[in-house]
């Protein structure tokens, strides 16, 4: 008898197989036990029929606790209604370990509780699906760059210098010296690109940010390509193709996973087929502050429209709650009552989200109206801008003061630096930051001093401008930000197996 993975059951229709896994859920019927088994590769229903197995096996199935591990044998039969399209008619069952009472049940749990139990939470179906999507995105990223002839190279994690400003550095010691955990592999990426032409790094990066937001991690994974003989226009073309490639790939290969997390991916089709709007910072600010319209509307008008819509939706849902609660007061069957209670719970959750929206929209309007030209775009500004388009936006030509020391100044307008940020739609905001690099040694030295960075730590970097300096550009994609958007998650903490954030070092 063949030992198979659940994801391969389709190749064994009407055959007898053996699988090893864990019990994730269970339901009982008349003389039947329906075991939902997961083996890491997938989920499948296994039916234990009292009349078809010996008494001992049936008793085992009946008493099995959630997350007990087991081996079972049975026949694979097609059933379109089941997850994966197949189920197993059990013939025999062998227990590997009876689980203690598992803390994460099928009841709703608070997020902090789930985070404290992250090591166990990873087993839930939703987390399983997100991790598989993350895996596919990683695979697509490597495929994209390898197909384009890039060489993957690794930057060190211990560094002696800051890259992205000194305020978010994690300080540590390296033997007797002061050192930092890297914020970005870019500077090393530039050196490697001068050796190899086109490279990408893919490694952990660290930012000490003492704020709890839905988009910040203290440790995250970044993909940083760096290309010799590249300007920022070529950089933007590459970013656009790259993002399109990932979306197309993940949509094609993760249909089952998207179904599990109820992520509608139709919005990807337009993104894959249309050119991303490229806005100069100047123009983006005009749109943001309502001085320029998009499709005949200003941001303020659009947001006011959203606000009214949210108010209506809240009213409508409150009415539905009222109706369901009235119906529950009457004498109805337990099943119906359960159904109504679920409906009420869902509605109340939706109302809570809408109330949050109702609270933030006026804040967004205010921050858009009062935005000061020359400052960096904040999270809410990004949300407002992307609200006007259903495509990722590329904002380029930034005031040089808000960008890092290494950004290339625009020869035609020295107020500007040739940086680009990519803002994801659906409220996600910045997923990519990049740009062309300064090649002029004197300007670089000036910038290093302006940012009060220790010149000595950057001597090696300046060498790149002394020995065959060439125009070059690159960017960094935050993997977890990408996963959050692709999966449409409310918070970045679910995008990585063990998130490290302000206030969270365990498990
Ligand atoms: O915009 P950032 O700071 O750019 C750089 O680090 C450049 N050196 C990249 C380059 O040109 N090679 O960061 C790049 C991306 C952001 O757009 C965001 O997606 C992600 O990294 N990122 C974070 N993700 C999660 N948590 C954080 N605290 C992040 N900070 C940045
Ligand atoms: Mg950035």
Report on the architecture of this protein.
With 507 residues, this protein is an alpha+beta fold. Among the domains are: 2-97, Nucleic acid-binding proteins (OB fold (Dihydrolipoamide Acetyltransferase, E2P), Beta Barrel); 125-266 and 459-495, Bira Bifunctional Protein, Domain 2 (BirA Bifunctional Protein, domain 2, 2-Layer Sandwich), CATH 3.30.930. It is 39% helix and 23% strand. The chain has 15 helices and 17 strands. An eight-stranded mixed sheet has the order 7-11-12-17-16-15-14-13. Strands 2-3-4-6-5 form a five-stranded mixed beta barrel.
Can you lay out the helices and strands and say which pair or pack?
Blueprint: E1 2-3, E2 16-29, E3 32-38, E4 43-49, H1 55-63, E5 69-78, E6 86-97, H2 111-116, H3 118-121, H4 125-147, E7 151-152, E8 158-159, E9 170-174, E10 177-181, H5 186-196, E11 198-206, E12 219-228, H6 232-253, H7 255-261, H8 266-273, E13 278-280, H9 281-288, H10 299-329, H11 334-369, H12 379-387, E14 393-399, E15 416-424, E16 429-436, H13 441-450, H14 459-463, E17 472-478, H15 479-487
Parallel strand pairs: 1-2, 4-6, 7-11, 13-14
Antiparallel strand pairs: 2-3, 2-5, 3-4, 5-6, 8-10, 9-10, 11-12, 12-17, 14-15, 15-16, 16-17
Helix pairs in contact: 4-6, 4-7, 4-15, 6-8, 10-11, 11-12
Bound molecules: 4-amino-1,4-dioxobutan-2-aminium adenosine-5'-monophosphate and magnesium ion.
Magnesium ion (MG) is lined by residues 421, 430, 433.
The tally of beta strands, per DSSP, is 17
What hetero molecules are in the model? 4-amino-1,4-dioxobutan-2-aminium adenosine-5'-monophosphate, magnesium ion
Can you list the strand order of the major beta sheet?
Answer: 7-11-12-17-16-15-14-13
Q: pLDDT below 50 for ≥5 consecutive residues: which ranges?
A: none
Taking all Cα atoms into account, the compactness measure Rg is 27 Å
Would you tell me the structural class of the helices and strands? alpha+beta
Beta fraction: 15-25%
Backbone shape: globular
Separation of termini? 39 Å
CATH fold group of the domain at 125-266 and 459-495: BirA Bifunctional Protein, domain 2
The average pLDDT value, as a whole number, equals 96
**Helix fraction by DSSP (H/I, runs of at least 4):** 25-40%
Can you summarize the main beta sheet?
A: 8 strands, mixed
The CATH architecture of the domain at 125-266 and 459-495 is: 2-Layer Sandwich
Q: Class of the domain at 125-266 and 459-495, according to the CATH hierarchy?
A: Alpha Beta
